[in-house]
Amino acid sequence: MTLLDAEWSLRDQKRLQSRLRAARLKQPATLEDLDWQGSRRFDRSLLQSLTSDEWIRQHRNVLVLGPTGVGKTYIACALGHQACRDGYHVLYQRLPRLLADLEIAHADGRYPKLLQRLVKIDVLVLDDWGLETLTDRSRHDLLEILDDRYQTGSTLVTSQLPVEHWHDSIGDPTLADAILDRLIHNAYRLTIDGESMRKKQRLTPSAQSA
After folding, report:
1. What is the pLDDT of residues 175-197, one digit of tens each?
2. How far apart are CA 125 and CA 154, in angstroms?
3. How many domains does the chain divide into?
4. Which residues form the AAA+ ATPase domain (predicted)?
5. Per the domain annotation, does 88 fall within a domain?
């Protein structure tokens, strides 16, 4: 490697670290560290296809679905990490916390700036979709975000709730139609099934042998 190559490599690493810091991914997950042969059941060919940036370039969304503890957040963060490596700007947010922040932003005047930031992100990761009941303002905020991002960015959602229940969980039928139309129709669905890994980790040696 020449001195110039080394300099470019160092610059690329610094840019990557900057993108990763800005992404605020919940877990330091990578696709290389993912256990592809474990007991969890999911469409491995689909996940393999998502390791490329084709879905991001096409502004497709990704829904990672399954019960608690099966690794939805890990996979979402691993895909976010890969997107950062591919040069994209990523932001991880738990949906309940984001909606709470938007509520405060309405009051203190930050809302337009925060909305603009969310729209510009290449890959927006929304973790824990459907965990809490939405207020009327939260429903409108969610629609604003997804409408402004439609066909301009990719949104990656994790949820314990089956997609068939999302409409009811949103509450308002008209807004639910509009929100889900912008999120689901062009989305890949990766469903994970299996035993909670957190429960396995909590098992004591005596419990494991029982």
Report:
1. 999 999 999 999 999 999 977 66
2. 9
3. 1
4. 58-191
5. yes
Is residue 82 situated within a structural domain?
yes
DSSP string, the chain: --HHHHHHHHHHHHHHHHHHHHHT-SS---GGGS-TTSS-B--HHHHHHHTSSHHHHTT-EEEEE-STTSSHHHHHHHHHHHHHHTT--EEEEEHHHHHHHHHHHHHHT-HHHHHHHHHH-SEEEEESTTSSPPPHHHHHHHHHHHHHHTTTSEEEEEESS-GGGHHHHH--HHHHHHHHHHHHTTEEEEE-BS--HHHHHH--HHHHH-
Check which CATH number belongs to the domain holding 133 and give it. Answer: 3.40.50.300
Percent of the chain predicted with pLDDT > 70: 87
Does a structural domain hold residue 95?
A: yes
Q: Is 184 left (phi over 0), alpha (psi -120 to 50) or beta?
A: alpha
